[in-house]
Automatic annotation (TrEMBL):
Superkingdom of origin: Bacteria
Lineage, broadest ranks: Bacteria, Bacillati, Actinomycetota, Actinomycetes, Jiangellales
Protein name: Uncharacterized protein
Region (Disordered): 86-122
Organism: Jiangella asiatica
Transmembrane segments: 6-22, 34-56, 62-80
Keywords: Membrane, Transmembrane, Transmembrane helix
Keyword Membrane: yes
Length: 133
């Protein structure tokens, strides 16, 4: 009953927009009049098809809002789980060759000579003396 009243009001509003567009066709121009009429026919069509009743049923249904809250909670829990999983698996410990296109985090140097930076050469020599390579 309540839904029917809202559908009737939306259809009446659409009819009012169509009538208003016809009356203002000469003063506002035909383009604006046709756009206003299209909006009115859109409202009347939505009421006739039942889209308005569907939306009203969703808005005023406590069960529908319970469903929306459940979906929101599921989204929050999923996102939290993803964030916790990404923190937990920060370091990948895989054996075998890296996948195609993967960047090697510790590239091997072609030569064991100097790197070109005197400070790094000093650090490397200190590490070699202590048996660390």
């Amino acid at each position: 009953m309540f839904t029917d009243a809202i559908e009737l009001a939306v259809a009446a509003l659409g009819l009012g927009l169509v009538v208003l567009s016809v009356r203002q066709a000469r003063s506002k121009g035909w383009a604006a009049s046709l756009q206003l009429a299209a909006g009115g026919f859109l409202l009347m069509g939505a009421a006739a098809v039942g889209i308005v009743g569907f939306v009203v049923g969703l808005v005023f249904s406590p069960l529908a809002w319970l469903g929306v809250a459940s979906l929101a909670l599921a989204g929050v829990l999923f996102a939290t789980g993803q964030k916790l999983e990404s923190r937990k698996s920060g370091a990948v410990t895989e054996s075998g060759p890296p996948p195609k296109g993967a960047v090697n985090p510790s590239p091997k140097r072609a030569s064991k000579g100097s790197t070109g930076d005197p400070e790094l050469d000093d650090i490397e020599s200190i590490l070699r003396r202590h048996g660390i390579e």
